[in-house]
């Protein structure tokens, strides 16, 4: 058993999988000599060389396009987007090429491409280094979207991502890179996509959260437990496809649901989860489905006070839990 940070879990897993499968290679801006802007690929070019850890031009469209071409020809590329905010130039490649590869070819072609992207706010990164992009891409059939939030989940889901034959958008909340630590077993394991995890068992209400918000939700649940409020916390982990069964089972048990995400409120992932609950668990609900999310402004501000205004935090989540619990 090893205790790792989230970033250490990523680096170690990439190295292990590259040793296992010579078809895996990494490409992206500064992934080689520098080891990535967050040092996620630190030391990999020294072990695997420039042919498998490829410093790419500052051009996300080509980083993903090269990955698609290599994947179609049997390799397993890992295309790193330095910040998720800059994935937009590759939108056409992701949505119209990678995600549709299997469908357009009637299953003849596959596209085993992993696209790693640090997302989210909380580091005073400002407008173009703090965005959450998951709702846009979770809307796309043919594309797996995952957002593991703990070292254990990162290791298991990254291993799985490097085995599936369809494109995966692997979201990593940058605020958690060195903030979150956890135990990872020495035994080999993988975590399949589409399976949520109950991070905390409770009986009074269900909180659904992922990424950094998962950890805030767990802290808030711990606070209200002192007053006898029992909160069940569910981490979807996979955002496309969602594990409806686990979410609905929890809501049917507790009768109340609170959904947390830091992206803008309107048309965020929480809206889809709320719709699922309303349509398939309505008769079990004892209160309206509630959401805590970022406001509908263009992006997370740079100013720390304004950033705090934008982002959900433990206090905001605790207040929402208490309000929902009072119904």
What does this protein look like?
The chain has 327 residues and is of the alpha/beta class. It folds into two domains: 2-184, Rossmann fold (3-Layer(aba) Sandwich), CATH 3.40.50; 197-325, Rossmann fold (3-Layer(aba) Sandwich), CATH 3.40.50.920. The chain is 36% helix and 20% strand. The chain is built from twelve helices and 14 strands. The strands form three sheets. It has a seven-stranded mixed β-sheet, with helices on both faces. A five-stranded mixed β-sheet has the order 9-11-10-13-14, sandwiched between helices. Strands 1-8 form a two-stranded antiparallel ribbon. Strand 2 (24-28), helix 2 (44-48) and strand 3 (53-55) form a beta-alpha-beta unit. It starts with a strand and ends with a helix.
Labels describing this entry:
327 residues; Rossmann fold; seven-stranded mixed beta sheet; five-stranded mixed beta sheet; globular
Radius of gyration: 19 Å
Number of domains: 2
- Residues in helices, as a percent range: 25-40%
Low-confidence sequence ranges: none
| CATH superfamily grouping of the largest domain | Thiamin diphosphate (ThDP)-binding fold, Pyr/PP domains
**pLDDT averaged residue by residue:** 97
Amount of beta strand: 15-25%
**Main sheet specs:** 7 strands, mixed
CATH class of the largest domain: Alpha Beta
Overall structural class, as computed from helix and strand content, comes to alpha/beta
Strand order of the largest sheet: 3-2-4-5-7-6-12
By DSSP, the count of extended strands is 14
What's the total helix number?
12
The CATH architecture of the largest domain is: 3-Layer(aba) Sandwich
